[in-house]
Write a structure and sequence with these properties.
The chain folds into 2 domains: 1-49, Arc Repressor Mutant, subunit A, CATH 1.10.10.60; 59-202, Tetracycline Repressor, domain 2 (Orthogonal Bundle), CATH 1.10.357. It is globular, with a radius of gyration of 19 Å. By secondary structure, the chain is mainly alpha-helical. The protein is built from 9 helices and no strands.
């Protein structure tokens, strides 16, 4: 990628992030981006031929950073409960420090997606799966090594479920933040409750 290409691509991505932050994920269109950048819609399409490619460029770095944060909590001698607690805490800190980034990662890719010709959703998350896979594998291997599960497939399924449970809680927090309608329970209390259910022995 040339410097010229990199500069224009980053300008488009910066404008896209601003639209999601200021107006919401459903307002992220090529027309809106073109208006922010001050170019034609075709100029945006030249750099990002479709919305899937645009979303991939927006979301992939964040997913890779999320996976790195999660994996940092799992070491070769970490116990299963400590790994579960450590990963949940690390990912919670990562996402709660930037809810706009969280929305970009887990809300924006769902907006405006349409079934492809084969019935599959036109989304970019499948191509970005490797980063998340590494995080799940690290936790799953720890759970098996520590005797929590006998089979890797079961441990990996549990890893996906743990991550999904946290994302659901974070989605509630992000919604409350967007609507300026605080939840009945404090964010840290809800997180601690989740930790108590998933890894009570490490509490």
């Amino acid at each position: 990628m040339t410097k010229r290409t990199s500069k224009m691509a980053e300008t488009i991505l910066d404008a896209s992030r601003a639209i999601v932050r200021d107006l919401g994920p459903d307002k992220l269109t090529f027309e809106a981006i073109a208006g922010r950048v001050g170019v034609s819609k075709q100029a945006i399409i030249y750099w990002f031929p479709n919305k899937a490619r645009l979303l991939e460029a927006l979301v992939r770095p964040a997913l890779e950073a999320e996976a790195a944060a999660g994996k940092s909590a799992v070491g070769p001698k970490t116990t299963p409960d400590a790994a579960l607690r450590g990963m949940i805490e690390a990912l919670a800190v990562f996402h709660m420090s930037d809810l706009d980034r969280f929305r970009m990662m887990y809300v924006t890719p769902q907006i405006g997606q349409r079934p492809g010709r084969d019935g599959a959703m036109v989304t970019t998350l499948g191509r970005m799966h490797p980063a998340t896979t590494e995080m799940y594998d690290a936790l799953a291997e720890c759970l098996v090594r520590g005797g929590r599960y006998d089979r890797l497939i079961e441990a990996r399924r549990a890893s996906v479920a743990v991550h999904t449970a946290l994302l659901g809680l974070l989605l509630r927090m992000a919604m409350a933040d967007t609507l300026n309608a605080p939840l009945r329970h404090r964010d840290d209390a809800l997180l601690e409750a989740l930790l108590g259910v998933i890894a009570p022995q490490a509490a």
